[in-house]
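Ticket #4471: structure export looks truncated?
Reporter: QA, pipeline team
Priority: medium

Steps to reproduce: submit the single chain below to the structure queue and open the exported record.
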Amino acid sequence: MGTSDELARRIEETLGRMTLEQKCALLSGGSAFTTRAMPRYGIPAMQFSDGPHGLRLQAEGANHLGIGGSRPATCFPTAATVANSWDPGMGEALGRALGEECLAQGVNVVLGPGLCIKRSPLCGRDFEYFSEDPYLAGKMAAAYVRGIQSTGVAACPKHFAANSQETRRQASDSVLDERTLRELYLTAFEIVVRESGPKCIMSSYNLVNGTYANESVRLLTDVLRGEWGFDGAVVTDWGGSNDHIAGVRAGSTFEMPDPGLSPVRELTAAVRDGRLEESVVDERVREALGVILPTCAATASADDAFDVGDHHAIARDVAANSIVLLKNEATEQGGPILPLATGTRVALVGDFASVPRYQGAGSSLVNPTRLDTLLGCVGCSGLELVGFEPGYERHGDKDDAKAAAAIDLARRAEVVLLCMGLDELVESEGMDRDDMRVNQNQVELLRRLSSANPNVVVLLSGGAPVECDWADDARALAYLCLGGQAGASAALDVVCGRVNPSGKLSESWARRLADTPTAKTFPAGGHVAAYREGPYVGYRYYQTAGVPVAFPFGYGLSYTRFEYSRPRVAADVVTLSVTNVGRRAGAEVVQLYVSKPKREVFRPEQELKGFAKVFLEPGETKGVTIALDDKAFRYFDVGTGSWEIERGVYELRVGASCEDIRLRAQVELAGTGAKNPYEGLDLRSYETGRVKEVTDAEFAALLGRPIPQERATIDRNTCFCDLIHGRSPLLWLLWSIFNLLRRAGERRGVPNLNVLFIWNMPLRALAKNAGGVFSMAAVDGLVMEAKGFWVIGLLRMLVGIVANMVRNAVQAGRLAREVT
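Actual output as written to the record:
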């Protein structure tokens, strides 16, 4: 595309030739996954594709709900998996491979990576996100973006911002204080923008403190573009536009998918009526062209193929280095059970061994180029396979015959490899989990297997933490997470010792759901999602409140051992030495936490502020340097509205996990001089970190305003799941049909994404998702129907649909003549 100056001149020349209507038309989707082409001005259609961990480029005739198949692409490990590698280099390699596949398939923008903070382990989409910690999430996401954009295409990190639950996701108001928003939910995006320069950012469905994220001037203009210097395009989540005019005014560039032409008419009228300055539209068009022109040039000149085998090998390497060894006990013969020696006689048990759980369900679902299974790969592993038995019904039903066959097989083997995990139904976009348990039939099978053969190795699949009170029945426990299409071969690489496990948990594993800080509040069933826990998410809560966990943040075992020594703080860096004191080559993740033991402004006990992964041969020592950046000591002061540093002594803690601190050092800072913004407020729960029972008065004091109340109104933002509370028998019937379809998916064990998407969708989203059939006038007729104005409401809806389709047809014909 030439230099940036040449691109800027091209954009200004193009902008000067376009009419107002044409400019407005460029800011809405032309199809489910493309922008509008305008050949007269040299503007091609830009192709978006789902795919935080692999492309989901839809075949012809498909839509964004998943109707129609997607083209084969490499299914890489999910973000939840790769985060366990704590290796930005791995993320960058994966991103580069994703970019290469974009070029081959003509994709301009990858809708990812996802870096929402994991507020609760119950979020149904946690498998798409990196961590409970914003520093780790930001660093890993920035690496993805650098890799993707190194190929000339664009990344689109998502979902901005405070998007934490799938329940009512398009009409949920995330209510939280400014400090928590800044320190936890915005920091990862800040790191990505400042360190990798993404060309796009996706705004989230939800409201943030009463304003839709896509319409928030504070988020999109003041913070994203103003403070962080983002100069790319903001893309709505699919169907996430509420008020297009307000979105454009706030800084939103593309309204997706194809909403028809009614938003174009609305935006054009707003400019002509003086409600919106044309200069605002021009700025959005500059942003749009700044992504369309260079990325389309990159895809146009690219080959239409990628190295399938090479990308499968990358997926395998990433998966293997992301596996977390949670337990590895000695056998009766002495020595840890893993790794298994060549020739070990193994029984392979578990339905997941033949039909693996390797990715989550929803818009990120990838059609893999190939798929490894444990059953298919074990023959090449060097292990001697005694046999395979599924052992249990995948979705929890009891089957005594399957269990008995597995137990008989276990008695004939030296070691049992048992595949356990979460099934497809409990981890999906569009729904949140009900609990943290694996199916009870798996737990019972483990207990019976361990009685028959104590040498049981559990290979656990799933994109989020589970309760592990059953782990005592296993000699070893390896967390595979969701390892992508090569995850099975990667698991055998670790089990057999070809790869020394180096993964560390990127999120805390609570002993039980009741121990989590949001156990009583997540997911919010109503309109208001109150973030009562404030900044105490994940290890920030468990360590401050003194709550024991099953496995702490940053934890993971190795087949070797590492020693830390010689810590030193100089200028803005911490240095130390790490020695491999074992007999195998391996990698250690060195983690730096910052604590302020004596603090005036409440804060978590400690916070991750740096990390480094170091690879060492047996007996080798290497120096490790971790920089202390501008985020190391700061807190957001709601009094000054800016970042401040409290004066005093800080402790720098270096360790192998948040609980395994090996070295300590101190540094004293003068601070910025700001006074405690909470002085005089009763915030005892936040001062102690014990936030499971925060009172209304405390939360209101933290917010600095009254807590919003639930609303019980029928309007454009009433969700389909709430139609049963309306006054229309017709819509009651519609609700019943969707509820039956939803439950049928549960019984089949395969979530119906189309139904789940609609179930949590507000009525106004029909005007954004129905391909131009509905307008907001038609939606208003449907609202009247829901309120009980049966005949009038239906007539108004039908008239709105017909009028909109006629106007769209006329306008589309005119636009086509003008731009082709």
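Status: closed, not a bug. The export was complete when the record was re-opened. Leaving a note from the reviewer for reference: The CA atoms of residues 103 and 299 lie 5 Å apart.
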